[in-house]
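User: Here's a chain of 64 residues. Predict its fold as tokens.
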Amino acid sequence: MTAMSTKEIVQDLLQRLPEDVSLHDVAREIEFVAAVREGLAEIDRGEGVAIEKIERELPSWVIK
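Assistant: Prediction complete.
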């Protein structure tokens, strides 16, 4: 399977959204996809964060 281009990803996203979607919602969806792709690229480059580090820091992220 070949990787989709950015244009193909956006076209696929637009096909999946409802006809009455707002421009704001389209922008949020594109931002989400971009963030996920960047995160995956970071992992591919070996820049990910070890799960053990996340588990140690997670309690400080929770609002009590």
